[in-house]
Amino acid sequence: MRLLLLFILSLNLLYSQKIALLIGNNEYSFAPLNNSLHDVDGIYNTLKEIGFKDSNIKVLKNISKDAMKKALLSFEDQASSSEIALIYFSGHSIQVNNINYVFPANTIVRKQRDLQDLINLDDFIKSATSAKSGIVLIDASRKNPLIKHFQNEKYNKVSSPRGLNQISPKEDQILIGFSKSEGDISEDGNVKMSSYSKALSERLKENHDIHRVLRKVQQDVMRNHEQYPTIFSTLNFTVCLTGSCIPKEVVKPKVVVTPKEVIEPKVVVVAPKEVIEPKVVEVVPKEVIEPKIVEVVPKEVIEPKVVEVVAKEVIEEKVVEVIPEVIPEVIHEVIRKYALTINPIPSSAKVYIMNIQPSYKDGIKLKEGKYTIKVKLDGYKSKVESIYLKSNLEKDISLSKIIKKIVEPTPIVRYALTINPIPSHAKVSITNIKFRYKDGIKLEEGRYTIKVKLSGYKTKIQKVYLKNNLEKDITLSKIVSRKNDQSSDTSSLVNKEIDTITNAKKTVSKKKTLTFKGVTYTGEEKNSLAHGKGRLLWDNGNSYTGDFVESKRTGRGTLRWANGNKYIGDFINDKRTGKGSLFLANGAKYIGSFVNGKRTGKGTYTWRNGDRYIGDFVNDRQTGMGTYIWASGKQRKGLWKNGLPID
């Protein structure tokens, strides 16, 4: 009989009264909203669909402070006899001195004394906690232009000028949900419903505990928008707005036989080979005895099930413990948060918590769990530590100073070259450099072409390899000419000298076509090597036009790929190194620094949809400090690693 009463009691709980108060305000002279009334309509339709009676749902739109106060008091009275009380608000909000307020319609506040015209969020919480389970959902973290008036008051300090302040509910059995995280805001878009209310209206239809429903709402909103909904809860039992929850798992029946001693049974339902109702447990020993009646009082209210137990042997008056086939899901989710303070040494170092979205601040409130702390400061080695937070924690993290080794650049060694022409008034020039010759000229190690000339003497050209200081004599031979042919010989000498100069220049700048395996070069050459200006064409259709040094692309040039990509910029030893611009065939482009053919250093990458990233790159990935700017104008500035934000 007692089991039957408990079963009836569980049915009463399942279908107990559920009430809701939905408030939407969009008429604000300082900043009208687009979504609020659509948000309320969407939540209203969902509540009706999941079993809320129409008479138990009160919808209020664009109401004044007095009307809102009256509605909250009436709802508090009604909630005192209800199983579930839900309040939903969509509109403007503000936080002043860590106190959260919501705006009635057509309300303006400019000074601290005007706050009396607003509704304290605590009034919402108080009304909902009259029920067995209270739920308060606030979609009001929108940009509020009135904040600037409070910032201008000298005597008033606004602790966080954006969004709502984090709260820790003091009341039991209450759940509070915000559409954004502490100190953050969401934009009021042009679509009918806000991203938070749209996800909420869909997820409330699922047969899950309210905590699980709101966690799914978090995931939906984070996946499609730049906001992070938060949950604060002291509910310690399952709350399903649809009336029933889907269990987490099914556990197979388990039989425990204890022949020597009687243990306290949780649920005892014994049946012979045929299924009988779980009222009487009849134990038949080897000898016929009077049947005994065992009265069972379960510790928890569960849905009774009939479980067939077939013992292998008949034993005397034993206690059989049977674990039911389905264990109902009970979520004891009391969200406790602990204060975390990191004391960096030096104190000017910056602290990051790398595996959460909110920025670190001293005393930040976090749930129990593992967190990765990063401390960095210019001139010091960055330190990354993992901590497990299960109570309030204050921790010192010291950084080690970087001792920079002064690496002096390898000096460019130059050697002195002096040519002593004979006769001494002959003119000396070095034909393969652009500098004018003078005695003791400083040159790097290498091969140089020396030309010595004087009228009436045979011009002489010699090559020298300079690898240390060198002083060299070069003697010219005098030209002996016949008297009769003096004019002719002089003309011949001039022509010969001109040919000599021309041939000397050709050794450096003669244009040729050189063919290698799969590559054709056309341009200036030196010693059968591409040297100077030229063009390189591959058989696959790629091409390069620009500077060469000893058959390597070095200097400035343009590289075109057959697929339509193009690079214009600096090269060193056949690699894109230095400043350059890369234009991709898909419409994207990068302008900035390259090292060994990869985007490394400062640069700007622009996608074809208009999004762009400005900052540091390492090996073609965004790594370091940078700013991502969406085509809409929104920005995200911070640290990046391997193409992803890390703070």
Automatic annotation (TrEMBL):
Residue ranges of domain Peptidase C14 caspase in the record: 18-236
Pfam families, per the entry: MORN (PF02493), Peptidase_C14 (PF00656)
Any Gene Ontology CC annotation: cytosol
GO molecular function (one): cysteine-type endopeptidase activity
A GO BP annotation: proteolysis
Name of the protein this chain belongs to: MORN repeat protein
InterPro entries, per the entry: Caspase-like_dom_sf (IPR029030), MORN (IPR003409), Pept_C14_caspase (IPR011600)
Keywords: Repeat
